[in-house]
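Worked example (supplementary).
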Amino acid sequence: MINLVINGLPVAVEEGSTILEAAKYLGFPIPTLCHLEGLSNYGACRLCVVEIGEGPKARLVSSCTYQVEEGLKVRTASARVVKARKMVLELLLASCPQSKVIQDLASAHDVRQQRFRQEHEDCILCGLCIRMCEEQMMAKAIGFRNRGENRSIGTPFDMKSEECRLCGGCMYVCPACQLRCTYMEPEKAICGGCANLSPPCLEKSSFEDMMCYMDPCVACEIRKD
Amino acid sequence: MIKDITQSEATEDGITDKQIDALIAKHQTDRNGVIDILEAIQASYGYLPPHALRIVAKKMNRSLVDIYGVATFYQAFSLRPKGKHRIVVCLGTACHVRGAPAIVEEFERQLGIKAGETTPDMKYTLETVNCLGACALGPIVVVDERYYSKVIPTQVRDIINNSHSGDRDTADSHQQQKTIGEAVPS
Ligand code: FES
Ligand code: FES
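After joint prediction of all chains, the assembly is encoded as:
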C-alpha cells in the first residue's frame, strides 16, 4: 500500500493506482475527458490536472496517468489547478465548440467564453475511439495518422477497414462527434450522424457520400451504393 | 464491399510479394524493426507502396493501422511515388525570415504543384523541410543533393532547368551551380 495525502486527507491505496483513482476513492471530483474505465490511460486532454509537491517544486500533472508515490501531496482544486483546468476547457471549446460533452464540462466549471481563435474541429484527438477499437473491440481498425497539426484519426488509406466490424464503439465513446453529420465530407470519417435518432442527413435529397467510412451506417442503414 | 486491393495494386506497380518478403526477412528483429523494414522498402522503390504496407502488417502480425501510423508519422517515408528530381526548400526559422516562403511559392507556381506534391510527369517532387543546418546561408534549396544558398525567387527557374540539364550532363552541372548561387560545401 502507498500512503499519500490528497487535499490534506491521508489515504492508502494500492501500488500502481493513479492519483485519479485515489482521489475518486476519497470522493474528490476531478473532471476527465479522455479517461474511460476499461481503457488504458492516455493523458491526452489534460483536463484532469492536479498539483503535486510543495513550494517551488509544486507542479501540475495529469492525474489519470500519474501513479501514486509514497508521501505524495496532492491538491485537486488549488487556484493553480483551477486556472489550468479552465484554460484547458477554453482550448477545448476553441477547437470543438459543438461538442455537447465539452459544453457541459465548460459550463460545469463556469467557463462561458474562450479567448482563442475559434475553430470547428471534428476531432480533439483524445484517442478514446482508438483505444475502444483496440482494447475492447479487439479490432484495431482505426489509429492515429500523420503527426503534428496534420494528425488525424481514421483507417489506413482512408479506406473502409477490413478489421472494422461496424460495432459503433468508436462513435459511442467519442466526445466530439455525437449528433453531428459531416454531410458532404465523408473523408472526415466518423460522422456520428447515425448516433442521431433522426439523422439530419435524412432530410437532404442526395444520400451519396454523406456517410462515414462505416457505411452502411450502423444506425440508420443508409447505404452509399 | 471490400475489394481485394492487394491483388490489383500488386500488378500495378509490379512489386511482388517475394521482394517485400525478402526485405522483411532481412530486417525483422523479434517483433520490432518496422522502421528498418519500411526504410528498406522505401530505398528499393522510392516510396512505400500500399500493397507493401499490407504485406508488412501481415508478416509482422501487426494491424495495418500500426504500420500505416509509422509510415505517415515520419517525414522520411512517402506513400506516393516521388518524382525524378527532389526539390527541397528549407522553411526553417532562419530561412523563413530570409524569404523562403516566397521561394516555395515561386517553385509552386513554376512547377504547377503544391509543396509535397509531384508533377504529373513524375519529374519533380517539391518538398519543404524545417532547417537543414545551414541557416547562415539561407534560404537554402536542395535539388538532388545539390545545395543552393541565398536563393532568391528569380533564381528558381534556373535551378529547375539546371537540375534538368544535370540529367544529361553531370560534368558541367557543377559549373552551372556556381553561377546560380554560392555553392555550399557539403
Ligand atoms: S483525463 Fe487525464 S488527461 Fe484526459
Ligand atoms: S533554417 Fe534553413 S537551414 Fe536552418
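Two points are worth noting when inspecting this output. Chain A has two domains: 2-117+188-224, 128-173. The two ends of chain A are 58 Å apart (CA to CA).
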